[in-house]
Structure formats: C-alpha cells, structure tokens
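Subject: Sanity check before I submit

Could someone independently write out the structure tokens for this chain? I want to compare against mine line by line before I put it in a report. The sequence has 417 residues.
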Amino acid sequence: MSNLKFLSPAQVRNIANEFGNPIYIYSENKLRQSAREALNFPNAFGLRVRYAMKANSTAEIIKLFNSMNIHFDASSSYEVKRLLMIGIEPDKIQLTAQELAPDLEDLVEKGVLFNACSLRQLEAYGKLFPGQRICVRINPGIGSGHANRVNVGGPASSFGIWYDYFDEIKAIAEKYDLVIDTLHTHIGSGSDPTVWEKVTKMNLDAVKAFPNVTTLNMGGGFKIGRLPEEKTTDLQEIGSKVKTYFEAFYKETGREIKLEIEPGTYLVAANGALIAEIDDIVDTGKDGYTFLKTNTGMSDILRPTLYGVQHEINLVPRENELPTETEDVVIVGHACESGDILTPTIGDSEGVATIPLPKAKIGDYLVIEDAGAYCSSMSAINYNSFPRVPEVLIKENGEFVLIRKRQTMEQMIENEL
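---
Independent answer below. Compare away.
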C-alpha cells in the first residue's frame, strides 16, 4: 500500500520534522466537506445533525463543527462539561449516557437536553423534572456493524430501553406528567440500506405509540471504508429511503416528524491520519515474519487490538523515492504487550496478518490512514507511560496548526500523591 489519502510525502516529512512523531494530522477541508455531506442528508420535514463527540473530542474539531451549526451528542456528563468549557451552547448538547449522571439536575437546569437510556434514568428524570419534555432511547431489536462489539441494537446490546417495554415507558411518563417528544435509536456501524429501511419502519411504528413525539433520532454509525474492499455509507442512498418512509408516515397519520442523525465516524474518520516512525526491523527466520516495530501503537490507536480491524498503512521514506521492491510485513506497536499489533487478522484481534509494503528502512515514516475517529479519543493512553501524542490541523490555506500539545511526563503524574 503506497497511496496516501490526503497527505503528500513532503507534508508527512515536514510535519514530522516540525512537530515530531507520532502525531495525529487532520484536514480542515475534508472535515468541512464531510460535515456538509451530513447536513445534506435527505429529509422530509427538517433535519438536525448531532456530532457524536466520543469519536474525536479535540476542541478545535468541536469548534469547527459548531461553526457549521452542528449539534452534539455526549456520552457522559464529563463530555457535556467538556463541551460547555469549550463554549458550546447548552441547548446544542444532548446527554446520552450508559450511567445515570450524578449531576443530572445541574446539567439540565443549565439547558442541556437529556436522553433517557433506561427505565431507571427515565424515573430519575421524572422525579427531578415532573411535567417536562424528555427524549427516550429505545433498543429496536436489531443491530448492524462489522463486529458484534459495534452493534448497539439487538438483544446482545444494553443500549436503550427494549422495545417490548413501551407500556413501562408510558407508565413512568404518566406518573410524572412527562412529555416524550423525541425518540432515539441507534443500530451500530453499518452501511446496508436494507437494514436502514427495516429500522426506519420499526422506528416509525414506535413513534405511532407515542403521540407527542415530533422528532425521531436515528443515531449514526455510518460506516467509512477504511480498506479498499470496504464500502463507505452512501448518505444520499440511505437518506432517500428514510425520507420516503417519513413522507408515507405523514400521509398515514398527518404527523410531520423531524429527523436527527448522529454521525461520529462519518464526520472525522477519513479526515485524520497518524504519522509514526519505524523504530526497528526484526524477523523470525525464513519461515516466520518480518516485523516493522513502530513508535506508536495501542497507546495511540486501539482499534486493531480491540476490534481486530486494519487501517490502510502507507510508507513514506525519510529520504529519497519510494522503493520499487516490496515485502510482506507485520506492523507492531511499541507497547510491551503481545496484543499491540497494527495488522491483526481481520475479524480476529488475536491473529497476525502481513501486508505488502515497499521495502522499509529504520527511520522511515508510516502513515496510518482513516485515523480521525475512535483513535485519539479511544486509546490506551499512558500505557507503558507513553505520553499522549500531539495533534495538528491542516488549515484550508495549507498552514499546519498545532491543536494539542504533546503531553509531558509532569502532566502524566501530576495527580499522583
């Protein structure tokens, strides 16, 4: 693999020379383009795009999306407070969390929206805010994704209130005089239009059961094809089918339902990369493997270890041209951990796979592509005491701007007593 997706070899060398490596790089042009695509999602009666900030919570990226009037979904009260500290307006933030926020009352009083993800959460909200409006997350009974761990719908998922419990939802709402005006659902990370059609019909059937609902949040999980054989979700194709069902629902019921979507991966994944350096090259004999040891790994990018997935990885020689000779290599991380493999067998995080690369030398650079989502924000930070790495944004004019400093050792241990 030797085709960089949005960087040039000269940019890779310049960034590494100026800021060091490993380092995350994001493209402002590409981030804005993905945001425009999401904002253009087909809809019948209005659309709100919420960015799932867990995908990448770096402040400069949050501010960029905020400037385009994208709203936000937070997965914990800490994420909510982080958004508020960045300067995001409370009414643009929705809290959708697995745990009941201990400071829920304070956040809601500030103007943050709350999405009840369990009967307990709905009851707790009702006690605090009787007579108020509320969003409820349901589990529609179906999921989608490249692995079971990214399915967030269906019987193996704990996310949301199971669809058989509508009577219990209504009883709690009636008890506290709550107005359920938004339903929320999320099936996982998939790009199959047929699944989205089925889920849309199921969700609109749920809307029928709640006469005060005016908004249906269909979640996100729009897949990005990180490898050539993987398909990127066509938002226009999926959205057109969703729009048709919303229009049919209006003809049947007279209710105009507004649509919300929650892209995370789609907005940032393909718009970031991780630059690393080859630290060593070792092998295990003629019948074994050639390993490229890098100065990055699960401390910066956990997805391969966690999910058994691969990112496209490209070689940029520190000097001279790309070699014509290739070899099959295993790329491993710098952690003292057997699972720190950047080229696992796809679908098996414990397996080892080789990829073809131009013949590399120690000191050459590797560019791990499509690393904008669930990489910087989801990693084994400080494992083996490796510091958190810096992040750079390539502005629309081509300028390199540092948006996160490299963590210092002092910062790493400052809270230890």
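---
OP: Matches mine. For the report I'm noting this point. Residues 9-25+271-406 form a domain with the Lyase, Ornithine Decarboxylase; Chain A, domain 1 fold (CATH 2.40.37.10).
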